[in-house]
Amino acid sequence: MSEIANQPVLILLGPPGAGKGTQARRLEERFGLVQLSTGDLLRAAVAAGSPAGREAKAVMEAGGLVSDEIVLAILRERLSQPDVAGGVILDGFPRTTGQAEALDTLLAAEGRRVTGAISMEVDDAAMVARIAGRYTCAGCGEGYHDSFKQPKRAGICDACGGTEMKRRPDDTAETVAVRLEAYHSETAPLISYYAGQNLLHRVDAMGEIDAVTTDLISTIEGLRQPA
Ligand code: AP5
Q1: Which of 53, 101, 149, 170 fits a disulfide with 45 by CB distance 3.0 to 4.6 angstroms?
Q2: Residues 10, 87, 47, 98: what is their CA dihedral angle, to the nearest 10 degrees?
Q3: Is 139 exposed, middle or buried (0-12, 13-18, 19+ CB in 10 A)?
Q4: Cβ–Cβ contacts within 10 Å for residue 2, how many?
Q5: Is 172 in contact with 133 (CB distance < 8 Å)?
Q6: What confidence score (pLDDT) does residue 152 get?
Q7: What are the Cα distances from residue 52, in Å, to 42, 45, 91?
Q8: Which atom of ligand 1 lies closest to the CA of 43?
């Protein structure tokens, strides 16, 4: 089997605000993997004004799910780039059973498979507060929160020293409610999908950010133990 077949493909599952992006950034550093967020890829397509981005924009702003066709095209393109050959953490993908099946097919064609799916378990009620207070550094994408994670020096990014911060247009209370609904109807069934393949692991994501990181690291370390 080729070397690429042994590289991890980890999935972070969880509703909006569960901390997928925050944790994926930490895990990519810790394990030398590449974070691959379909939300980020779609926002880049929107900013670039590509045909896919123009189609995705209104759906994203309303809190719905972008079509599998667009998401899969964007993901396929990203997965073909050389920097992801060492393994990836998928953040926000797959989000429908169709996407999960397409991912299995895509990986199988390269002799790869999903290594583990981690469900980040949270209460819906807390997610609105997490999302409403969220902002990121415009320069490097480091995430912050008005209450839970502020930069060490006000207005200055800890990671890159940038001073421009931005908020997402879909981070309103109304849109978050729609996004949570989409999660429960379209994405939560993937918990059973991966449990059925013995790939599912659950992590309590209601604790402090560092505590969640510790749990995720030990879960992933467990996946790396020889059978
Ligand atoms: P996407 O960008 O994937 O957004 P999401 O899934 O809604 O998730 P979020 O980014 O909102 O939350 P997160 O879990 O990453 O939390 P974060 O770490 O930032 O998708 C956006 C849109 O794109 C979708 O609505 C859809 O339209 C489209 N899309 C994307 N992928 C798609 C797909 N595959 N198919 C179809 N459509 C797709 O944390 C949130 C805040 O809380 C931060 O401020 C953070 O500092 C704070 N925080 C994190 N952890 C903790 C903690 N433990 N305690 C306290 N605060 C915390």
Answers
A1: 53
A2: -50
A3: middle
A4: 9
A5: no
A6: 96
A7: 8, 7, 20
A8: 23
Averages of pLDDT over each 10 residues, the chain, 227 residues: 68 96 94 95 95 95 96 94 93 98 94 95 92 93 92 96 94 91 97 97 96 97 70
Secondary structure (3-state) at 116: strand
In the block, which residue shows the tokens 């939300």? 39
Q: Which atom of ligand 1 is nearest to the CA of 38?
A: 31
C-alpha span between 79 and 212 (Å, rounded): 27
Cα–Cα dist 214/203, whole Å:
10
Hey, which of 66, 77, 124, 213 would you mutate to test ligand 1's pocket, going by the most ligand atoms within 8 Å of its Cβ? 66
